[in-house]
Amino acid sequence: MSSVLLTTDGSDIATAAMTRAIAILGRDHTFASLAVVPSAFLPGASVTPMDTHPVIDPELEEEIEREGRVEGTTDLAELDQTLGITSDHILETGEPGPTICEVAARIGADLVVVGSHGYGWLQRVLIGSVSHHVLHNSPCPVLVMRRDEGSPPPE
Predict the structure, then answer these.
(1) CB 149: neighbour CB atoms within 10 A?
(2) 29: how many CB neighbours lie within 10 A of its CB?
């Protein structure tokens, strides 16, 4: 029995990817599901136009992160229900790619499953790719589940 880390951003694409992965892998594994809430860094108003140090509104930042954690917790519960599995839920705050790799190492995962949004090369260059980062930095094998051919491209 392997330890499998399922990753989600709460999107329909991620849920479809995890559904396909479970269909391939089967349910005879120990599962952990991970949602990563991005850090909320919100620059406030600058003192002068030349001010290069943004002012951070800590209360607003905290509220956004709290909302993200609530949403992430809900996403993890819904993922279990959709997949028909029971998993250990892990909710982290940070940058998704590095955080997924850190959690995989921490829990001793045998496999990490990530979804791919199917962005073209230009979009990957401009916004990066979580699946690409995990594929090249994970401490264990990675299963990248691509978007179905018939699915509409991401917005």
Answers:
(1) 6
(2) 17
Is residue 77 domain-resident? yes
| 71 belongs to a structural domain | yes
SS (H, E, C) the chain: CCEEEEEECCCHHHHHHHHHHHHHHCCCCEEEEEEEECCCCCECCCCCCCCCCCCECHHHHHHHHHHHHHHHHHHHHHHHHHHCCCEEEEEEECCHHHHHHHHHHHHCCCEEEEECCCCCHHHHHHHCCHHHHHHHHCCCCEEEECCCCCCCCCC
Give the predicted TM-score (pTM) of the model.
0.80
Q: pLDDT, tens digit, for every residue of 20-55?
A: 999 999 999 999 999 998 876 645 554 555 555 555
Q: What is the CATH number of the domain that holds 101?
A: 3.40.50.620
CB 110 within 8 A of CB 102: no
Domain assignment present for 117: yes
Number of structural domains in the chain? 1
Q: 118-139 pLDDT, tens per residue?
A: 555 554 444 458 888 999 999 9
Q: Where in the sequence is the domain holding 25, given as residue range(s)?
A: 3-145
